[in-house]
Design brief:
Helix content of chain A: 25-40%
Number of strands of chain B: 11
Distance between the termini of chain B: 21 Å
Bound molecules: zinc ion
Strand content of chain A: 15-25%
Radius of gyration of chain A: 31 Å
Number of helices of chain B: 15
Order of helices and strands of chain B: HHEHEHEHEHEEHEHEHHHHEHHEEH
Strand content of chain B: 5-15%
Structural class of chain B: alpha/beta
Number of helices of chain A: 15
Largest interface: A-B, 30 and 43 residues
Largest sheet of chain B: 11 strands, mixed
Strand order of the largest sheet of chain B: 1-3-2-4-6-5-10-11-9-7-8
Oligomer: heterodimer
């Protein structure tokens, strides 16, 4: 007997449109409570919703990126439930005709590609927030009410914690690539709802097997809590099943909702779902159905960028970069775009990748921006790469110049010259120094010439002296060659 | 003729000539309201100061020779389920008893742009649910023709104040006949425009796919003038039509020739009052004498219309009225221990019996397991009824029939019998289910002296034609000129 975790994930993503889904209020986080509201999103008597086309296009773009079938005809539905943060006591959503369905996303998990099915992705409006930290009462902040929300429902195709995490992170990466959400976790732009159960099987009976009761955990808003929740539930359910192999099965117990307790790091029982929730869905009579024609769909398709997984494969092949470096460079679209621009401007891919990785990402992170936001144009960085590629500056010096470029708009070559950082590869200038050093260190020259035990050490000593006298500007490769020629008479 | 008896067109002519000022007309109406409205109770709230200030502004602008809007200085009444940022908007419900709308409905913006004067807000059945205005949370309205009878509903207040010359015209709303039925009961003209012709932005929703704002006026040309002022595309209402608004007045006096009028035999079945049947038949004879051809139609699906209507309207209402929960505005029960309790208590005390009945009906039909059998089936039949009308309009220009099965009934007569009261809508709901424009015009009086209306329906967005056909009858008759004798 054994078991395999079976996990599906619902993700809610707030879209980064300028205005809300059905009114003109700003879609903006962090403003004073109830400042981004109007009669429409307050659910005042007599108001009507109007659809935000930008939100619809963002959602279609995501559907395309998830290889979904895009519905040419969709409608809106009202999902009824009473809660103080839901002003109309119904949410405008899509019920039986979601705008996209039947898609998939390919993940890279431990170097293997894993395909996760996408059941559907549809648009709806977000609710507001109840504020509980007021003395003696609960407040309702409706700034978030009506913000466009994309709900992405996966098939239960994930079988491990790493797969769940790869899926969740890929979704975040994807919406950021598409530039349809900032996917800022702290601001609640992404919320997760995993469905977890175990497939219990017996190797002796390949056709047998059963599921443990499905557990749904709502409203997880960090990767950490998602990871802990899924790991905890797998262990908990395995324990339950081991304790009661005949009773703890889906056909004998109903689905249940549990909540994640962040402090105790456990899931807590909330309620059983005896039957389907009663939302009294019906078609929203205040909005027209949406019909997408080929022209409109074509315009949206044209906005589809190269997606992360394709870009990863291309970078590996085209630039010969390793897995780690490629993952880093393609993690954000801005980084990948910047990298390619630098290469395009004449840098060697390895040099550009290494400088972006060792300097660019580190400095951007320190400054709370991205590499493109550092203010170093791709052309200037390419200039620096070329200096290094041509051995005009050493790798270490190049790192220093990168930092100096943050403060100066000068071309990298000028920065290097002004700070005397250019390598001396010019043999005539070096010859004088080499001659000087050789004449002053007869013993070392002799040791080197003798070719005995001390020869290697003697050569290093002579090279060190040359480097020192050139104040580090000598190109060590050129200087070494020069020493060899002079001492050994090699040409 | 006395000042209050004038039509809008007559008043506008007097105002233009300088024979009378808007202030005089407005003040005159307020005096009349003070005298007669305590009996009729057509108004829920008067906005006397604002109205006189506006009238004064218009008079000054007129004296300065400014170009004025088409309703310049004309005092009008507004049904109290239309949001006006001045004063309260209650929908005649205790749950909105003190509610002040933060914005003006589209039609109010339009009336302001037309330089109209707003006298106040008129009574209705709570949230427009009813056919007698007895379901108001703030007292019933009496029919000016006989104060012991109902004025119809739900726009009973608007129809009564126009009939009693307490306003030159009014706006109503029509979800299943709420403009046309009270217009028939009060012997005034009531027009429900095509769905989508007038923006619903700011009309407190009852049945969103059925609701439409329209004019209640003394004459057909007045209704045309008012419709022209409020009809337009409005991007805030996604269901508002992006079609040009016709010139409803240009050819209103020109008879329609040739004219084929369809009459469904089903309209004259059991349940129709004999005197109404006779009045409608006489009206058809008159049209025939004016050159129209009367075509007998069979519209068997009409018998399902009332059932379909009550499923669709209550389902939409149950959702539309969910927002009245005491959280953000309106009545809140203060003694509740938690928010669930607060919802229940606020809604239990804030809504009246008929509203609660319809919310329960609608909630039931939308519930899992019943949705397919009720709501979905109703939508399918609704489509079939539409097709029936489309077919009929291949043969005829207009369909004529009664507005109501009975003349105005006695106050309290049907209040405890909701099913019988629902039957009042049997001839009017078709226009809402199909979205077609329909008008009620005075076509006679019962032997007891109570008004009878004639209903005319034409194709979608053909209000120009509908108004011309209605005007033909009005020109040939004097029912619209008769006035009730008011008590004070
Ligand atoms: Zn808003």
């Amino acid at each position: 007997m054994g078991y395999r975790p079976t996990i599906g994930l619902e993700i809610h993503v707030e879209l980064s449109t300028a205005s809300k889904m059905f009114c003109g209020c700003p879609n903006h986080f962090g403003d004073p409570p109830n400042s981004n509201v109007c009669p429409v999103c307050l659910g005042m008597p007599g108001v009507l919703p109007t659809m935000n086309r930008q939100a619809y296009e963002y959602a279609v773009l995501m559907g395309l990126a998830l290889n979904c079938r895009i519905a040419t005809f969709t409608k809106w539905d009202r999902k009824g439930y009473y809660y103080p943060d839901l002003p109309k006591n119904y949410q405008i959503s899509q019920y039986d005709l979601p705008l996209s369905s039947n898609g998939y996303i390919d993940l890279l998990v431990n170097g293997q590609t894993k395909r996760i099915g996408i059941t559907r992705a549809h648009l709806e409006e977000d609710a507001g927030k109840n504020v509980h930290d007021l003395p003696g009462c609960t407040g309702v902040d409706l700034n978030r009410a009506g913000v466009p929300l994309l709900e992405i429902v996966s098939e239960p195709d994930m079988n491990s914690v790493p797969e769940v995490m790869a899926y969740a992170r890929s979704m975040r990466q994807l919406v950021r690539y598409l530039n349809i959400s900032q996917a800022n976790m702290q601001q609640g732009h992404m919320r997760f709802e995993p469905n977890i159960s175990l497939w219990v099987f017996d190797d002796a009976e390949p056709d047998g097997g059963h599921y443990t009761p499905i557990v749904e955990v709502k409203n997880l808003n960090s990767f950490r809590s998602l990871e802990r929740t899924v790991a905890f539930e797998i262990d908990r359910q395995a324990g339950q099943w081991q304790a009661d192999p005949d009773g703890y099965r889906m056909d004998k117990m109903s689905k249940q909702n549990r909540g994640w307790d962040d402090v105790r790091e456990v899931t807590v029982y909330q309620r059983h779902k005896e039957e389907a929730d009663e939302y009294r869905y019906f078609p929203e009579p205040d909005l027209l159905p949406v019909e997408i024609d080929d022209a409109w769909l074509g315009r949206i398709k044209a906005q589809l960028p190269e997606l992360p997984i394709a870009r990863y494969a291309r970078f590996r092949k085209e630039f010969g970069l390793d897995e780690k470096l490629t993952t880093l460079l393609t993690s954000e679209r801005g980084t990948a775009d910047y990298f390619e621009a630098v290469v395009q401007a004449g840098a060697s891919p390895h040099r550009a990748a290494n400088l972006i990785q060792s300097q660019g990402l580190r400095l951007a992170n320190e400054r709370g921006t991205d590499v493109a936001g550092l203010g170093i144009s791709a052309e200037r960085l390419a200039g620096l790469c070329k200096l290094a590629d041509e051995d005009k500056v050493s790798a270490t010096t190049a790192a220093g110049i990168f930092q100096a470029m943050l403060e100066s708009d000068d071309p990298p070559e000028k920065i290097a010259q002004d700070r005397n950082l250019m390598q001396v590869s010019d043999t005539s200038a070096l010859e004088a120094i080499v001659a000087e050093v050789l004449s002053e260190n007869g013993k070392a020259v002799a040791d080197y010439k003798s070719g005995g035990k001390k020869a290697k050490k003697a050569r290093s000593f002579i090279l060190g002296q040359v480097m020192q006298r050139s104040k580090g500007q000598a190109n060590p490769k050129v200087a070494g060659e020069l020493i060899d020629r002079k001492v050994l008479g090699q040409t | 003729m006395e000042l209050h008896c004038l039509s809008i067109h007559q008043l506008a002519a007097e105002l233009a000539k300088g024979q009378v000022s808007s202030c005089q007309a407005t003040e005159h109406l307020f005096e009349r309201i003070e005298r007669h409205d305590p009996v009729i109770h057509g108004y829920l709230e008067l906005q006397q100061d604002a109205a006189i200030a506006q009238a004064d502004r218009i008079d000054k602008r007129r004296n300065d020779g400014e170009t004025l809007g088409p309703l310049a200085g004309v005092p009008l009444a507004i049904k109290d389920n239309i949001c006006v940022s001045h004063g309260r908007t209650t929908c005649a419900s205790k749950i909105l008893g003190n509610f002040q709308s933060p914005y003006d409905a589209h039609v109010i913006e339009a009336l302001n742009a037309a330089d109209a004067v707003i006298l106040g807000k008129t009574n209705l059945d709570e949230f427009a649910m009813g056919a007698s205005t007895e379901n108001s949370g703030f007292g019933l309205t009496r029919n000016p023709w006989n104060p012991e009878t109902v004025p119809g509903g739900s726009s009973g207040g608007s129809a009564a104040v126009v009939a009693a010359d307490l306003a030159y015209a009014a706006l109503g709303s029509d979800t299943g006949g709420s403009i046309r039925q009270p217009a028939a009961f009060c012997s005034v003209v009531g027009l429900k425009p095509t769905y989508g012709r007038v923006s619903r932005y700011g009309l407190v929703a009852f049945g969103s796919s059925l609701d439409q704002i329209g004019p209640i006026a003394k004459t057909v040309p007045d209704a045309a003038l008012l419709l022209a002022a409020i009809a337009s595309h409005d991007r805030r209402d996604s269901t508002s039509a992006e079609l040009e608004v016709g010139d409803y007045l240009a050819e209103i006096e020109r008879p329609v020739k040739p004219l084929r009028i369809g009459v469904a035999s089903e309209y004259f079945g059991p349940g129709l009052d004999k005197e109404i049947a006779q009045a409608v038949r006489r009206a058809l004879d008159l049209y025939e004498s004016l050159g129209a051809e009367i075509v007998e139609l069979s519209m068997p699906l009409n018998k399902y219309a009332l059932a379909v209507y009550y499923i669709v309207a209550t389902a939409e209402a149950s959702s539309n009225l969910a927002r009245y929960d005491g959280v953000r505005y309106g009545y809140r029960d203060r003694d509740s221990k938690d928010h669930i309790d607060m919802y229940s208590a606020s809604r239990a005390h804030g809504f009246g019996a008929e509203v609660k009945r319809r919310i329960m009906l609608g909630t039931y039909t939308l519930s899992a397991g019943y949705y397919d059998a009720y709501y979905l089936k109703a939508l399918k039949v609704r489509t079939l009824i539409k097709q029936d009308f489309d077919k009929a309009f291949e043969q005829v220009d207009c369909i004529a029939g009664p507005v109501t099965p009975t003349p105005p009934f006695k106050l309290g007569e049907k209040i405890d019998d909701p099913l019988t009261l629902y039957l009042s809508d049997v001839y009017t709901v078709m226009a809402n289910l199909t979205g077609l424009p329909a008008i009620s015009i005075p076509c006679g009086f019962s032997s007891a002296g109570l008004p009878i209306g004639l209903q005319l329906t034409t194709k979608a967005f053909s209000e120009e034609l509908l108004l011309r056909i209605a005007r033909m009858f009005e020109q040939a008759t004097d029912y619209h000129q008769r006035k009730p004798k008011l008590q004070s």
